[in-house]
Amino acid sequence: MTSTKPLRVGMVGHAFMGAAHSHAWRTAPRFFDLPLQPQLTAVAGRNASGVRAAADKLGWESAETDWRRLIERDDIDLIDICTPGDTHAEIAAAALEAGKHVLCEKPLANSVDEAERMTVVAEAAAERGVYTMCGFSYRRTPALALAKRMVEEGRLGTIRHVRAQYLQDWLSDENAPMTWRLDKSKSGSGSLGDIGAHSIDAAQWITGQKITGVSALLETFVPERPLAGDLVGLGGHGDLGQDAPRGAVTVDDAAIFSARFDGGGTSAGAVGVFEATRYALGRKNAMRLELNGTKASLAFDFEDMNALSFYDAAESPDAGFRRILVTEPEHPYVGNWWPTGHGLGYEHGFTHQVVDLVNALAQGTQPEPSFADALQVQRVLAAVEASAANSSQWQKV
Ligand code: SOE
After folding, report:
1. What is the Å distance from ligand 1's center to 194 Cα?
2. pTM reported for the whole predicted model
3. Which part of the chain has CATH 3.30.360.10?
């Protein structure tokens, strides 16, 4: 049902996530009948010329150089936080206090303490009809949404194993320059929170089970990196060579951990292995998940994001894994796009995130993932760091 009621958005930050979110706000109403019509009202950034250029390029009606102006403006209904994690708590609290809905990028915060406080404020705001969502966008990849549907339908039986890897390689060059993602005071953690958080959220959401404990190790392969001027995004401005001044990397380059799951209301909790790294040379954005159940297995790799591999033990043993091309109209989200086989991309997850958020706001229901869902992820991140700091000792979540 299409309506003309606007949803006026104010976005904080305009780098990689800002561009992805802008695309989603612009595109969602063009491919989905939405009960509220997103308007790209204002974007905030610290640099006046930079945010003005971003507003023009990304389609925002106005530009502000202080996010607090977005909070003050009465022509904004929702604040979209696309900044590093050290700013999430302050911006979200101010927005909710001002009665504005909040979409906050992942991970929710840089600590459990911050995430707990954000969740308390969010749950109080929900009582007033002001809602929040955390941007774990991979839930909206059609193949992963189909995986969840198959698990819920019992197609896999009891889940025994969860195998999650998130492999990138943009830091493999030891002279790749410093970026905010390598500064703990900005990012909270490295591979663990930046990409490992996606694996944790997806694994818990698809299995319907929560992680209850972990044993972990973290590694920083390159302890110092060349400093560059106005670093933005992934890896800054390319290789600055040996002689540039170097700064300390204060986060993990790779995170590896084992996990126990709670069984989701049953006594049969799955066991899991997780890996997140920025040094898997040749792997560009391989967000991978494999589930082994008692009846079937499924496997996903974001680098082949329109497909799901499925092995059904009920089929003849030599049937092997078959490839489900997740482009049929009955598959999640796909019917609103192209004919079968034409496929979707990374940006579609963000558009579907907007669709689900707008529908929940119009219905007055809690969008998912909630801040409480994101707090659970934050607790797992903290448990991984605590285990790694204590000789990989088992750490309850
Ligand atoms: C960088 O690792 C990154 O951009 C993450 O920050 C995003 O959340 C992920 O979607 C893609 O990779």
Report:
1. 6
2. 0.96
3. 141-344+375-389
Closest CA to 13 of 107, 78, 87, 90: 87
Partners of 161 in beta bridges? 271, 292
Q: State the Cα–Cα distance between residues 384 and 316, nearest whole angstrom.
A: 40
- Residue ranges of the chain assigned to CATH 3.40.50.720: 6-138
Average pLDDT over residues 377-387: 98
* Terminal Cα distance for the chain, rounded: 42
Dist. CA 92–CA 98, nearest whole Å = 10
Q: Is there an atom of ligand 1 within 6 Å of 16 CB?
A: yes
How is domain 141-344+375-389 classified at the CATH fold level?
Dihydrodipicolinate Reductase; domain 2 (3.30.360)
Does ligand 1 lie within 6 Å of residue 76's CB atom? no
SS3 233: coil
- What confidence tens digit (pLDDT) does each residue in 297-318 have? 999 999 999 999 999 999 988 9
Q: How many Å apart are CA 137 and CA 69, to the nearest integer? A: 27
Ligand 1 atom nearest to CA at 105: 8
Whether residue 19 is predicted with pLDDT greater than 80 in this model: the reply is yes
Q: How far is CA 278 from CA 24, 187, 194, 273, in A?
A: 26, 15, 10, 17
How many Å lie between the centroid of ligand 1 and the Cα of residue 303? 13
* Domain 6-138 homologous superfamily, CATH: NAD(P)-binding Rossmann-like Domain (3.40.50.720)
